[in-house]
Amino acid sequence: MKKSPFKRLIKLLLRQQLVVVLLAEFACVESFLERPLTTHFRNSNISTKRRFNFAIDGWVQDQDGEWEWEEDDPNYQASTSVVIQASATPQLPSGTYRPKQSLGQNYLKDPNTVAKIVRAFHQDASRYQPTVEEIVELGPGAGALTDKLVEVYGASRLHCIEIDERSIQLLEQKHPTLKITHADVLQVDYSDMAIERPLVVIGNLPYYITSQILFALADAAHVGAVSSATVTMQWEVGQRMVAKPKTKDYGILSVVFQLYADVVCHFKIPPTVFYPKPAVDSALIGLHFYSPSLLRERLQGVAPVQLRRVVTTAFQQRRKTLRNSLKKLCQQEGVELSEEWAVQRPEELTPEDFVALTKSIFGTQSEMQLGKKVWRKLKHGSNN
């Protein structure tokens, strides 16, 4: 079969072990650029040493190391892994609508990734509820997720929270009956929104306030306002949430969310599916929050505000023993750590250990009412 000059060019470049990402706006290659890079080869006979980290979708390497167009292979079968059908990539009004760096906006542009996210969201949201109701989308932006959610669930079940007025105007034009709140997602009272049942949350989170949003959702879980969240975030942040003790990624996020929820890392998301393209990979994380009654059992009566003091103070000096890192806190409370606790380091303790440690420091004083704002500060920033 005679190949086109374009295919021959790509084949030549790949033979030299180069992966080329063409960034152009020509209509003739637009559909090619919309395809995400795959992270594996479909041909399992390729030697591991000869595999690259990435390949251009549609090209495979044979046993001799030669590259060929996948559809030329008689054994080729198209992938049918996406259950929810992908819709067209949303088009932005030319010259009038661009992502704002000040808001950390990176819009999803790949319809297949959008479909995968919505499918994972349905799994998370339906875990504790027979039907998916009271959906809250955080920062819909250009509406890639919104369009798919409306298509699958209908506009009446969806409530969007957006701070960018341009996004609101765009969404109102496309979905006139959609409920949209013009607000900062960090200043919303989620308990006021959860009128009949807990909320199920979905969102493509801005990198610079990811932890603040997560902590706001944890606070909402205190009072049963949120039952699940399916959110994108920087890959490194997602790894911290699922990290185990005695690993470099283990920290405050690990302790808090492994106490408050069952945390699942669904999949890695490459930068190529966003506009503008970020410099890092992203992760889709699923959070299945425990009910308030079960959360109280897991915390053993320990007040979250006291748990926060212990966890954040300890991890400020994660390499030091608790004898040193909690010295000032223990002096303030007039207690002395037992030798069993004193010789350990924060990164060695399990989330359950931190609960027991907090109880050993504060005792019965730790029996306090759950508050609405414990883990998240009123302003954006660190949670020390």
From TrEMBL:
Please state the Enzyme Commission number of this protein: 2.1.1.-
Q: Which Gene3D superfamilies match?
A: Ribosomal RNA adenine dimethylase-like, domain 2 (1.10.8.100), Vaccinia Virus protein VP39 (3.40.50.150)
Q: Where is the Ribosomal RNA adenine methylase transferase N-terminal domain?
A: 113-291
Record key words, sorted: Methyltransferase, RNA-binding, rRNA processing, S-adenosyl-L-methionine, Signal, Transferase
Q: What is the residue range of the signal peptide feature?
A: 1-31
Q: Which family does it belong to?
A: Belongs to the class I-like SAM-binding methyltransferase superfamily. rRNA adenine N(6)-methyltransferase family.
This one is known as: rRNA adenine N(6)-methyltransferase
- Pfam families, A to Z: RrnaAD
* HAMAP family tied to this protein: 16SrRNA_methyltr_A
